[in-house]
What we know:
alpha/beta
Amino acid sequence: MRYTKAIFIFIAAVTAVRLWFINLFPLLGDEAYYWQWARHLDFGFYEQGPGVALVIWLFTLFTKINTIFTVRAGAVILSAATLVIAFLIYKKLYPGDTDKKENFINILNMSSSVIFAAGSILMMHDTVMAFFAALFILQMLYICEKPGSSRYWASAGMLLGFGVISKLTLATFYPAVIIFAMTAFTVNKKLFKNLLIFTLFTVIASSPYIYWNFTHDFATLKYLFIRGGGGNSGLTLKYLGELAGAQFGLISPFLFLFMMAAGFKALKNRENKGEYLMPVLFFVSIIPYLLLSLKSRVEANWPAYCFFPLFFITTRYIFGLNLKPSLKKAAIHLPYALGFLAVILIHIHLVLPILPIPEKANPLKKTYGYKELAEKADGVYNTLRQKGPLFIASRHYQTASLLAFYMKDNPEVYCLIPHESRKHYRFWNAYEEYKGGSCLFVYGEPWEHAEMSVYFENSVAADEFIYKKGAAESRYLFDYNTGFKGIK
């Protein structure tokens, strides 16, 4: 069997299934939030660059066709493209093996990784970043062949810059490239010139987001300081253990140890520049997250991209193991087989909850009932606005985004809190036009009412909504607030 053909049949088949599947479960709060970014397209946003917003903007036809399918379609297509690029990377990394089983197994290993599978159906920053990271790695392999080509270095810089404005975390690949170049190639003026070109084009590609921060009081730097535990001087090993466990599950619990072994082995061999590149990208880029975990919790998906280069050398490592035939067969096939089992169970759970996940820890709980809540909000809004000009607000950015997505005609829904939890909503403040006016406030907890009511002269309960799904129950209240004072 020709495995190249099998690879493209697999990619086409899984893409078709994903395009069908993405319609079967509700939009997540963060996905709706990024859709809001697309509706307010800009050079940058409070937490990240414009990458994910631009993709949603294109696939929703400039936010004219706003459906679950159009919001998520970009994730499916970009994930398929990333798999094609991964095929080309393996082909470039190991020439002469272009139609062998290894490349196919590598595609299966990547596809069965929980984090990659999630990014293939959810419209997140990671999906866009992975696409540019794959293109960047492929371009770096061309540099390994011709390190003196300034054109190759310029292209690599542009691709890295595009990846950075898709998700800032990819910036950790930059020092990895510098270290790789200084240890893999002859250090001379030509190399320094090319590294300067690489740096220049990385900055050029990132310039829209740099410009946005200059014009918005360096909002992202302040956000990163907060998320990075700024001001916390204490050290702990608690979060380091959490980080390791999360990566073990998200990447592949069955490949993790093989990845570490393959990484250390390739790190010792600088003769094969392409293989050496992969562990350098991993080990250098993972260090900031290990250090950060000594101070604060690191989100599980933040460092997941660091493992991407290891997939290629890990597949080759497993195939090169000197094991008994039965053990080697198990080492080759069990990782993706068990990985796909986990991925399939997760996909089923998205549509029909079957996994014993406690309600408090269930990420789907925050997606339940928003379509129905939006229908109720439409009715309340249409009734109250007969009394005069009225805007809609919520306390949570996810609730505001989901209401805006599901309500008829996609009205603007605002977030009226003055602190960091408002995220990019702090820059969407057209509600200031309603000073002295009225607001329909949608919330779920009594303390939210107390927090919000200080911005109004008067507040009265207008209605409520209760949604039940299995053991989960959500209750939302509607307040009619008048005499808006504004927010400082």
